[in-house]
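User:
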Amino acid sequence: MKVSVYEVGPRDGLQSLPVFVPTEMKTRLITALYDAGLKKIEETSMAHPKIVPQMADAQEVYQRGAVLVMNQRGYERALDTGARKINVVFSPCETFNLKNMKKTRSEIILMYKTFMKVPKKDVRVYISMAFGSPYSGTFSERDIRSCVKDAKKLGNTVVFSDTIGCGTTKQVKQFAKIAKEEKIRSSLHLHHKGDEEKAFELVKVGLFSGIKEFDSSIGGLGGCPFTEGSGANISTEKLVKHLTAWGFNCGIVPRDLAKPTNLANKIIRLQSQPL
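Assistant: Predicted structure:
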């Protein structure tokens, strides 16, 4: 069975790092990821540089992948840069929505619908904190289904995001079932708090529940800057090894990830330098 690895390292992996990663290093990382065989890469975010300083050079680093946008200005910048694959985000947790985007969920959905013109097939929708929130706890099946219905208004893929690394196998099965019933493609974006193998158990459950796309970050870089206690992303190199060992074809040879992994490790070492 073929499955997809969706690389988020250049955006989600870098966005919360305290030491600015040079533009040239970001560009080399993105190029190395494509050279390693990755087809789907979220390359950057059109966030305001005062809010997310690491993304200040978004238009310089962009090559040909996807861009996260959170408002009309970001969307227009993405189009001006040449991006045609757009990622958007909202959450069932209104505290997260207000902290992250200064709007409620219904206001966010209306905002996106007002200005987005790219085809739905080119839009990927993150449901942040789908598995639970430190502000609101866990969400009911009704809440998640409502979010999936909202996601369908915007794009063709819904990404269930475990922003704080609290997901369970029961939730993965439930979310996969909801996405199938609502006839929308589903993906998993999993964080963890040091126990990466627990996250890979959720990947395995997702695979056998019909999910065929999984987010990961090279070198395990990442975390959400808007959420205290956000865990790290699962690493691309380990995800590829697990998928290969389990007999799934993700189109990537593990050894080909050596160069981007080395670059990710250099970025990690850069963070130990004095600010």
